[in-house]
From TrEMBL:
Belongs to the cytochrome P450 family. InterPro entries: Cyt_P450 (IPR001128), Cyt_P450_B (IPR002397), Cyt_P450_sf (IPR036396). It comes from Paraburkholderia terrae. Pfam families: p450 (PF00067). This is Cytochrome P450. It comes from the Bacteria.
Amino acid sequence: MQIGGRKLPAGQRITLIWASANRDETVFGDPDEFRLDRDPASNLLYGSGIHECPGAPLAWLELRIGMEELLARTTWIALVPGNLPKNAVYPAAGFSVLPLRIE
């Protein structure tokens, strides 16, 4: 069989990395950019089909409420100068450290 143009022999083991799938340039042009105009239906963060996370609706609700409350009380959010974000390591995605100044 072939995956992404690469031949795999029968019985070959593969690893699925969801975070990597969400960074596929053929689906998410410029995957390192934060862009609000992306199609959320293409995101695999909460799985897909019968493997979709049953807690996804609760996570979306918590995130929405948290962001609404933060933004209602905030006038400025910026990276702390001189303190770079640190990328999380597999299997996590995003940042393990994100120093922000919130006013």
